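Lecture notes, part 5. Sequence design as translation. It can be helpful to think of inverse folding as translation between two languages: the language of shapes and the language of residues. The source text, in structure tokens, appears below.
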């Protein structure tokens, strides 16, 4: 199995990712040929070597013949697809990437999906870099992608559009960046989260190549990406990716049940990944409830504080469990009532989903707006999601 490990601890951008893949052996002329078959406007894409900390890094230099006029993001890729045939896995990848951008910007800036816009030049840069990135991975025959945690700077940093970056980073593992501002870009984050199978330390691989990438995107500091390429074990792995979760449990038999909804709300606000109650019987056949809370270890102190403040328990049990979770992504669907986000889960990143469900809050909002039963909106979103997934499967054959 051909595996790469993306080390983004010193920065991350789309240009740096593409440069590192060219350093690993992706052929620039084939990348440019593929991009030209899709791009609707003239551009010039070149790669140059530069020295960074004693290593030869491949820098991505892109010039696009487009203006700064805002254009709707939702319609741009559809417009491109109508003019040229993209097809197959590449079109699915690009659609997934733009769905991620649209949803993140819609929620961060509180805009309807149709109102999300980007400057034309930036939008075309995104299409070109993303097409190059996905095509380079296919050229190199990469079967699995592992990555280091994403470095996230303070919300007060002037160099990170933090709310948008964090919205795009959902599903990834992040860590605190202690510098003045981690040089990472929204496109770099979106590309990584679209394709990474797992985050963490470097796995065991037989190393064959190392690629260094850089970009010239004008950030304070240069985004520098290191990619290690090699072969991993071919052993069959279970679906989903593993994750360690902290489990907190306590049995409660002397508390007013009216307080439980408030308790659950507080636990979620305090950082719980999940919280639920199970009816049980305790000694002397007394009916009771087993409170179970799942959280990251870093939130344990907050969770314990809430439990001891809001319940009658005198003690809890804490343990570490391993869970396997599906790779999750969100795509947008069109219904007669409006746009609805759909959350999907698949056993491996980029594979067909085995679970998908419309976002309840989107359906609720549209049901109230159009004065129709929520089940009608939900059913319409399910049908649209089913058609979207079937079309993606057909295109990938």
């Amino acid at each position: 199995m051909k595996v790469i490990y993306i080390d983004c601890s010193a920065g991350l951008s789309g240009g740096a990712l593409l440069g590192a893949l060219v350093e690993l052996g992706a052929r620039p002329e084939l990348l440019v040929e593929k991009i030209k078959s899709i791009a609707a406007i003239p551009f010039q894409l070149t790669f140059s070597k530069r020295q960074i900390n004693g290593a030869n890094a491949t820098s991505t230099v892109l010039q696009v013949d487009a203006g700064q006029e805002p254009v709707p993001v939702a319609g741009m890729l559809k417009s491109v697809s109508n003019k040229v045939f993209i097809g197959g896995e590449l079109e699915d990848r690009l659609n997934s990437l733009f769905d991620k951008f649209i949803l993140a910007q819609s929620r961060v800036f509180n805009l309807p999906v149709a109102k999300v816009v980007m400057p034309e030049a930036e939008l075309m840069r995104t299409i070109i870099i993303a097409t190059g990135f996905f095509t380079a991975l296919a050229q190199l025959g990469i079967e699995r992608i592992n990555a280091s945690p994403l470095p996230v700077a303070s919300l007060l940093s002037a160099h990170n559009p933090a709310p948008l970056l964090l919205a795009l980073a959902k599903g990834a593992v992040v860590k605190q960046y202690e510098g003045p501002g981690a040089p990472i870009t929204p496109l770099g984050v979106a590309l990584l989260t679209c394709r990474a199978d797992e985050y963490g330390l470097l796995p065991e691989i037989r190393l064959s190549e190392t690629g260094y990438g850089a970009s010239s995107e004008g950030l304070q500091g240069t985004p520098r990406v290191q990619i290690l390429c090699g072969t991993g074990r071919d052993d069959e792995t279970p679906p989903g990716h593993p994750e360690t979760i902290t489990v907190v449990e306590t049995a409660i038999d002397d508390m007013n049940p009216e307080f439980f909804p408030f308790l659950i709300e507080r636990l979620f606000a305090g950082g719980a990944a999940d919280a639920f109650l199970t009816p049980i019987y305790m000694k002397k056949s007394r009916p009771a409830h087993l409170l179970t809370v799942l959280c990251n270890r870093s939130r344990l102190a907050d969770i314990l504080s809430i439990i001891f403040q809001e319940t009658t328990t005198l003690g809890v049990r804490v343990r570490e469990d391993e869970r396997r979770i599906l790779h999750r992504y969100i795509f947008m669907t069109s219904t007669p009532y409006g746009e609805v986000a759909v959350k999907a889960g698949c056993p491996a990143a980029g594979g067909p989903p085995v679970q998908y469900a419309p976002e309840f809050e989107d359906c609720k909002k549209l049901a109230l707006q159009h004065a129709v039963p929520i089940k009608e909106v939900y059913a319409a979103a399910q049908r649209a999601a089913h058609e979207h997934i079937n079309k993606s499967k057909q295109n990938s054959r």
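The translated text above is only one of many valid answers, since several sequences can fold into similar shapes. The mean pLDDT is 85.
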